[in-house]
Amino acid sequence: MNFNGCFMLKRGKVFAIGLIIFLIANPGFAQEKNDLELKEETNPSNVTLNLGADLVSRYVWRGQDFGASAAIQPSLSLDAFGFSLGAWGSYGFTRYTYWIDDTTSIENNYSEVDLFLSYNYKYFTLLLTDYYAPLPLDTFPGANYFNWKNATTWHTLELTLILDGPEKFPIQFIAATLLYGADKGKDTSGVYGAGTTNNFSTYFELSYQFDVKGFGITPFIGGIPFGSSWYGPKAGINNIGVNVRKEIPVSKKFSLPIQSNLIFNPLSKKVFLVFILSI
């Protein structure tokens, strides 16, 4: 899952963002992802290069549907000494309608490229994410990737704090706030996203993991404390459901992770059932 109207399926409604940055931020950087990673030890100092991809039946992130399409979501990261630097993307297979205003729209395949930097210490992870969802520059010249002016950029920076409980109590708590860029507050008519000052949209999520007969199960609940063009026009629960995971053995050394997410969004009154295959 941005920007001065990008990420809105219709003006005044919900911004599309992305990331999901790898699976830290929901059961979907979180639906936030449970990628199968191919890891290569580059030296004895625990430096690893990770790459993988998810095939998803729908890109749903924090209760929002981006692109109304199946998608492929590649990821790449370099991990060392508690730090992780990487990129995550999503590319929809079919075109969707992007509304420029209440009467004008274009057809486009949803795409997203997010960069992230995180640091993990014991039970805590601090994550900085740059969300960016490009659109055609001939229609949206402000979507230039190198435009970082706060008033016009299509980038959005988010700072996330993640608490992972110990193995005996595998609870996870996430607090994420958008700090800079394409997250604007209300205009004079009260429409979120149309104002000129940052809204600092904030999202909280709580989840708990357990296993049942070879299946990993994670119920989760997420919500927002105030209105936002990213999540919804008022405070409330926007992401509640359950993630179910299983690894299918293919050989003695390789298994294929699959998962499904049943997701309800009470704020938008929508429900999703998403299948994910990690490769």
DSSP strand count: 17
Major β-sheet annotation: 12 strands, antiparallel, barrel
Please estimate the helix content: under 10%
* Anisotropy-based shape: globular
In CATH terms, what is the architecture? Beta Barrel
Average pLDDT taken over every residue? 85
Bin the strand percentage. Answer: over 45%
Q: How would you write the strand order of the largest sheet?
A: 3-6-7-8-9-10-11-12-14-15-16-17
Concise summary:
With 279 residues, the chain is mostly beta strands. The chain is built from no helices and 17 strands.
What does this structure look like?
This protein is mostly beta strands. It has a single domain, classed as Porin (Beta Barrel), CATH 2.40.160.40. Helices cover 0% and strands 54% of the residues. It has no helices and 17 strands. The strands form two sheets. The chain has a twelve-stranded antiparallel barrel with strand order 3-6-7-8-9-10-11-12-14-15-16-17. A two-stranded antiparallel ribbon has the order 4-5.
